[in-house]
Known about the structure:
The structure holds three protein chains of three kinds. By secondary structure, chain A is mostly helical. Chain A has helices spanning 4-20, 26-64, 70-89, 91-95, 103-121, 123-133, 140-156, 158-163, 167-176, 178-202.
Amino acid sequence: MDRRIPLAIVLVLGITMMLQFFIPSRASETFFTDIFVRWGLIIYIFALIPSVGSLIRHHWRKLGARKEGWAYSIVTLIGLFGMALIGFLDREHVLARFKASGLFRTVFLNIQVPMQASMFGILAFYMASASYRAFRARTLEATLLLIAAFIVMFGVIPFGAYVWDKIPFISEWLLEVPNMAAKRGIRFGVGLGIAATSLKIILGIERSWMGGGGKA
Amino acid sequence: MNWIQALFKIDRRILFLLIAVVVILPLVKPLGLPTAVTIHAQNLFDAVDRIPPRTKPVLLSMDYSPSVMPELQPMSLAIIRHCLARRIPIIIMTLDPTGAGLAEDAIRKAAPEYPELKEGVDYVFAGYKVGGYLAMISIGQSFQATFPSDAAGHASKDVPILANIKNYDDIGLIVCIAGSAIVENWIVFAVTRYHATLGAGITAVSSADYYPFLQTGQLCGMLAGMKGGAEYEQLLANNNLSHAPKRASQGMDAISSAHILIIIFIFLGNIGYFLGRRKKA
Amino acid sequence: MFSHMFSTSVWTWIAAFLTLAIFSFLYKDNPFYRFAEHLFVGVSAGYWVIIYWYNNMVPNLINPLINFGHSWPHVSHVWLDGLVIIPGLLGLLFFSMFTKKHSYLILLPLAIILGMENGLSVPTYLQAEVLKQAQGTLQGIHTPFIAGQTFFLINGLIILIGVIATLSYFFFSREHKGVLGVSSKVGIWFIMLGFGASFGYTVMARLSLLVGRVQFLLTDWIHLIK
């Protein structure tokens, strides 16, 4: 396929979407929603499915080649197909009013939720360890960072007000003034960066999404 | 090595144990520390409270996964209880696939506390929508086209709370509870393009980044992390709107004591570092 | 006695076991952790498939095709429902990535998504993140100046200085010397204060996630917390 075809699609669609933002007519908006947004939603759905296919392929190959840890691949595949099967068979409950308690929901709440929550829960321990080993006031900038962190940490807990009643006020001031100034400056950069990168993609200057490409 | 030197070379497993103890003890024996309400939480509470009963609904978008559930689920529950207590219609949706299960769980917890309210009339779960910003734009053009049915499969035109919703103009307030940058997408695509009114509940990690939007009014109010959930629970209790268990408020006791421990760790680590540097010099 | 102290639900015990299996990684990597990790990956993927199918594929693609012309009530043009076959076929091209010979076909649906996303992003991000933020910065000075609120006026000036200084720090087209050197130095101070504030909140965030898990273990599994 000629590489100019996808580049032309990006160019035409990109400019159409930009122009549509400024066209207030009902016909334009209906065309925009009923065709493009709806089509985009459908294509988006398919974009995420190959990731599941890749997962299955990876673990199937690992299992077949008996690579290290292959037994755990069985666990993954049983989990995947088991959950999908429960969902397809438990049809009424997946679509049912939330009063029903189907097996699909039960497995989600008692297997997926605890594990996903716990994976992030252990970060608290690593953060405690890092605070002891790594957070050093080596330079003026690092000291400023730690001072700001202390003030906010004290400010969000009631103890801060017991130590000094002005701490919550100072903490809020820190968030509303210097923190906001810095974050706003960063947001300017982000907004301009997104606009610039989007224009580069639309105009075909940035082609890394095509793979084996890079810039024009 | 004397005990002073040992203080600056503690094994990390002891640090883990100390954190675990400091978190568990206040949960088992609550300290009952008061929760001070910030202006941004109050503003969000007022924005919801201002909506007249049984008029325009609140659109609650629970866009988070179980990984940040402890921070955000209490907020979602508090907002659902607020709406149900004040008879403000509430439409719940999600743009995160795992948010669907969490949203259903939140409704199953909160709705039975108000048995006189009816599903489909006072509250409904519209379901999960893929596409993020595409769904936001689609709602702005046509809510019915975005959600042709609710999560249970009933056609939207047959669900009283959904039947008259055309777009954001028919929604009183959007509240996005999210653990990612999706709040930014709501600001960019719903507020900027369609002039919707938006409030947010955000994980504490990201909340400091959203202060610029609070100042410009692009966000009408904000809840930050578990503290934000505790603040909203406090507001509900202060206004006699809910007396449900205050999970986030219970958690703040543990967080308070753990914060003190973290600060001690940072001090110890830095004292050890400076003493070591002086010794080398 | 047992039911008074512990949950009698099998599912709660399974949830507690998996929670502790994940936490066991704090000691060291072990088979329980790896079992839980792999189970999580599999169950998550299975869950995603079902949710995508029933919440998106069925109402947006399958139903319009099956109930041709009936599932898009606000549009009287029946042909629009039939047109969904086009994005459906384009979406199927994503699977071409699994073939070596035809993997280039994935560029077509990708181009559509990228064209739409980037075209929509330009005016909206510029308006929300640049123009509106610039307006907010200047209003932060103008409004208190008119109202005679000295404290808020000073805050507004600090914010203006901070925004300009932060932007100057990220300007790498010139060496940070002279005036630019001074402003970028001030900028890094503001950035450090901002990151420090974010770090302070991050500590609370991470602890919250642990507190949530402990609340589950001590409330739902072991009935220690009321």
